[in-house]
Amino acid sequence: MIEGSPPRKWIASAEASSALYSARRPKVMKREKISELTTNRLSVYLRCLNELASAGIKTVSSQELAEQFNLNSAQIRKDLGYFGEFGVRGIGYFVDDLREHLTKILGLDRPHRVGIVGAGRLGTALANYHGFSKSNFTVVALFDNDRDKIGDHIGPSHIPILDVKKIEKVTREKVIDVAVIAVPARVAQRVLNQIMAAGVKAVLNFAPALLKARLGVKVKTVDLTTSLESLSYFLARPQKTQVVSARRSGSARKRPETRASRQL
């Protein structure tokens, strides 16, 4: 050993500490276009990590995460790789740190205020849904054009039903940044136009209609009928085809991992 140089065990300890520190401070996100399917999976990963944190688990590998929640370990690593390097070889991911990063990536580290247009059965059911608050979403207003409903309040939070004509004014006052469309298809485009005029750029649409949004406005449509028809297609397939597909997908999941892929 050269005189004056630190002992080898000190160097090893410093390298290990540096690895842990770099894992907790991921590299800058890659400048690639992220697909909606990827962001949907990030939401699933965050939900799984929340369950692990509630159970007191501190670290988890991509393989363990995949096995416990029926996910794909290679897909997990690929999706997270778009946003930085989070894992540590031989350890995996720190659950609390990864939860924090995914929360920021999904924009859930700040509150979102939601306005629902349509105070019918679907709109009021959504307003009463308690799961929104867990993801930092709060329904602050419903809008309708029914004079018999305007002025009423919904649920234990007493969410007001307001005149849809006042949507622009209320959006500014209540700082609404997410809107939900729960109206019949024939008026959905008109409602979207009102929402865009009010300055809202994120819209969840439950109306079974193809809506045209201007540049800079994101509309995500949830079509329950299409989802049910997809299930109908599955039921209509011969049983033999279903079994073969299951075997193929199962064999694909059992492909041996490389040494590097087992580290996270």
What features would you highlight for this structure?
globular; Arc Repressor Mutant, subunit A; 264 residues; Rossmann fold; 9 strands; alpha/beta
Describe the structure.
- The protein has 264 residues and is an alpha/beta fold.
- The protein folds into two domains: 22-106, Winged helix-like DNA-binding domain superfamily/Winged helix DNA-binding domain (Arc Repressor Mutant, subunit A, Orthogonal Bundle), CATH 1.10.10; 112-226, Rossmann fold (3-Layer(aba) Sandwich), CATH 3.40.50.720.
- The chain is built from ten helices and nine strands.
- It has a seven-stranded mixed β-sheet with strand order 5-6-4-3-7-8-9, sandwiched between helices.
- Strand 7, helix 8 (185-197) and strand 8 (202-205) form a beta-alpha-beta unit.
- The radius of gyration is 24 Å and the shape is globular.
Reconstruct the topology from this structure.
Elements: H1 8-24, H2 36-54, E1 59-60, H3 62-69, H4 73-81, E2 93-94, H5 95-105, E3 112-117, H6 121-127, E4 137-144, E5 153-154, E6 159-163, H7 167-174, E7 178-181, H8 185-197, E8 202-205, E9 218-221, H9 224-236, H10 239-253
Parallel strand pairs: 3-4, 3-7, 4-6, 7-8, 8-9
Antiparallel strand pairs: 1-2, 5-6
Helix pairs in contact: 2-5, 3-4
